[in-house]
Amino acid sequence: MYKLVDDSESHRYRSACSRILTETIDELKDKYDIISQFTLVGSGARNLITRNGNGPYDLDYNLEIIKAPDNAWNNLKQLKETVRNCLNHSVGGNEFSDGKDSTAVLTSIRYFTDEPNVEFSFDVAIVTRNESGTLMRLIHNKNAWQFGSSGQYTWNEVKSSHDVLKKAKYIKDSGGWIFVRNRYVELKNMYLERHDNDHPSFIVYVEAVNEIYQKIKGGKRK
After folding, report:
1. pLDDT value, residue 123
2. Is there a domain that residue 178 lies in?
3. How much is the pLDDT for 5?
4. Does 22 fall in a domain?
5. CB of 170 within 8 A of CB of 213?
6. By residue range, what is the domain housing residue 107?
7. How far does CA 104 lie from the centroid of its chain?
């Protein structure tokens, strides 16, 4: 079962990830004319990092594409591979594995030097924003039977993500942040029990904020 991790424990890993992702966005800009930025999101950004028992834990980042050539927008497979290759160049020499392509994120794993157990990993979701400012996440649907051997690459809207910062502030100002923390852990464990790997921490965080916001807002209307 998931439990919260003390913020001080993850500090050195946040620093390592920041160095790697800074190199990644620099290479994207210099080699491919892709302007991007990265943001620590969900659990790491809100001191909600979780660990499954005594096992490893991870951090979640959004790599937001701000500007890119037309060929990148028109070929999302190429865009994801370009980001993955730049990420792989950046993790070299940092004791992290190459980025593994999953449905919603790229995952890089760091191992102990003296044993094969996973120590830490970080997930990178490739995102952009539509005209209304809503976050869109690059999804790789790997259903070969339906979409062929390469799968399907699409932008999927992150539900109710547009005003999540305002909702989080409202909850904090209302003194209800402990409810977000508790609900976040509950949702993480729910997806764990379902063996659902398509809900990274940022998405779970958005769900928890939206649920608690509605409860507090609804309660104040009564």
Report:
1. 87
2. no
3. 75
4. yes
5. yes
6. 2-160
7. 8
| Residue 103 per-residue DSSP state | S
- The whole-angstrom distance between residue 130's C-alpha and the CA centroid of its chain comes to 18
Rounded average pLDDT per 10-residue block, the chain, 222 residues:
75 84 96 95 69 74 95 94 91 71 83 58 90 88 69 84 83 93 93 83 87 87 50
Cβ–Cβ under 8 Å, residues 110 and 96: yes
User: Based on the structure, what is the number of domains in the chain?
Assistant: 1
3-state helix, strand, coil in the chain (%, to 5): 45, 25, 30
Q: For the chain, where are the alpha helices, taking DSSP H only?
A: 11-32, 70-74, 76-91, 144-147, 164-173, 177-193, 201-221
**CATH at 152:** 3.30.460.90
Q: Is 44 exposed, middle or buried (0-12, 13-18, 19+ CB in 10 A)?
A: buried
Place of tokens 């500090």: 11
- Does 206 fall in a domain? no
Number of alpha carbons in the 13 Å side-chain half-sphere of residue 133: 4
The reported pLDDT for the residue numbered 46 is: 64
Tell whether 184 is covered by a domain.
Answer: no
Position 113 scores a pLDDT of 57
CA-wise closest residue to 187 among 206, 199, 204: 204
Q: What is the pLDDT of residue 41?
A: 79
